[in-house]
Structures are given as C-alpha cells and as structure tokens.
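Page 47, continued from p. 46.
Same chain as before, 326 aa.
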Amino acid sequence: MLSPVCFRSRFRFRIDPAFGATLHDPKPIRPTASAAAQWASLVPFIAGEARLARWAALRPATAFAYEFIRFGVKQAWACLFGGMMVALIVATYLWYPRGAVLARYDFLFLMALAIQAGMLFFKLETFDEAKVIFIYHVVGTLMEVFKTGIGSWTYPEASIFHIAGVPLFSGFMYASIGSYIARSWRLFDFCFTHHPPLWSVYLLALAVYANFYAHHYMTDLRLVLFAAAAVLFGRTWIHYRIHYTYRRMPLLLGLFLVAVFIWIAENIGTATRTWLYPHQLGLVSPGKLGAWFLLLLISYALVTIVNRPQTLEQRELKAKLQPASV
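Result:
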C-alpha cells in the first residue's frame, strides 16, 4: 500500500541564527508527510519521487540540481490556475476568431469556470484553496467595478457576462493570486519567525483595501501603509522547504518578488489588449509595483484564514509527532 510520505534526507538540518538553514549532522531524520499528498492526483507519484530524491542526495551536484528542478516544479504547480489563465489570455488574443458569436471575454469566463471545476473534480485543487479563490474573486470584482467606473483602466471588448461593464473573468485574475499563495504555503511548508498577530494583519489589509477606494477622494495614504507594513513585518522571516532544508528570507522581500511577477503578468494583459490603462504607451508603469505589493498584503491576509501561520518550532514538533512510514 502506498504511503503518502517521503524522506527528507539522511542529513539533519539545523537553523543557523545568522545565515538560515544549513545541512549538518549526518543522522537519519524521521519521514515527513509529502506536500503532494494534499492533492490526490499526485499521490501515485510520491514513492517514485522519493526514490529519485534518495539517488540525487548521494552527490552534492545532483542534490543541488534536483533541488533547483524541484523548486521550479513546485512553483509551476503553485501557479497552475494563474498560469492557465495567462495562457488563455495570450491564446485568445492570437487565435480567437474576431466577430465570434461568443465574445472573447465570455469565452475566458466560461473557461475559467471550467478550469475551476476541473481542478476540483480531478483533485488538482483543495476545497480550502477554492474558498480563497471565491473570496478573492468577490473582493477583486468589487474593486474592478469601482476602478473601471472612475476610469483607472478599461476593458475595450464587449461581453455578456459582466457587472457594470466589468467582465466576470477579471475576478479570476485576482483569485489566481490567492490560489498561488495558498498552494505555495503548503508546497513549501511555510513557517515563520516574529510573525505579527493576525488581528494586526487583518487591520492592515482592511486599511489597504479602503485606501484603494478612498485615495480618489482624499489624501493617498500609500506611504503610510508601506510604513505600517514595514513596522508590522519588518522582523518577520518566512522559512520555506524546497526539499531537505529549511531556507529563509524576509517576508516583505518575498511579497515584493511576487509583486514583480504579477507586474509582468499585468504587462501581458495590456499587451494583449485584455485591459488597458489610459495614456499607456509602453510597459505598465513600475509604480504599479507598489499597488500590487499592497494588494498582496490583502491576499496574504485572506490566505491566513485557511492557512494559519506557524512558528518553525511548532512545525518541527509536528514533524516529530508524525507516524513513521509503514
């Protein structure tokens, strides 16, 4: 019978207070539940992957190559929903027939629904992840209605499935961000040091969301919100495990890096004329990175509803209490 576990390594990891996780002490480590076990469609591959991992660990070069590839595969799996949406945007821009009975935006909306249903049916997505997607879809659509109403950006094509001129597929673009964070959290086994209380994270997220609306009528508090985020998360480190070893980075840096990739995806959206900014001549302004960073604070707060932050010590205790493979 296949057991959903994999071995971390024959090496024990230690968290160095100055430099993060390093490999030390060649002693056996108890097996830990594979992140793949959370998606039923991946369970059949766990045993084979564990054998490959043990072979790769025999030499430093193969261990490094294996971890590098594993990082890329995990990122691809985390981006599954968003990646398919971006691929659809590009494909419909290049090949969708002009003048078709079903408008391009409506096709994107129906395909987004089909992808969502298919991921749940084939167990490529958990229901917890679907909850985040639904909540973020609502949050994003409400903001889209407001922003397009005041002319911040436009959707130049016609559609049937829309609210106040906002095509419904647009909410799925926001939802894909929440999906990415929720999936990454489990894939990379996130844990934290110096994480602020969740009530403070939720208050900051509410303030950020309110400012997206209010700054059109009063002073933009963006700089204040950046400062609040720096105070709140300035000491927070995120620890993530690609394979054997916990590595770490400042949480604020991680959120900024994600914002950069969202900005790249946003440029794809405008290049394919899926949405347009007034007076845009080339790339979307790099100033939008700040807006996406703030939006990621909302995304992060929503994901913590289903994925509660744990300390590194809590995660280690949980690993020790897991039953061994049988």
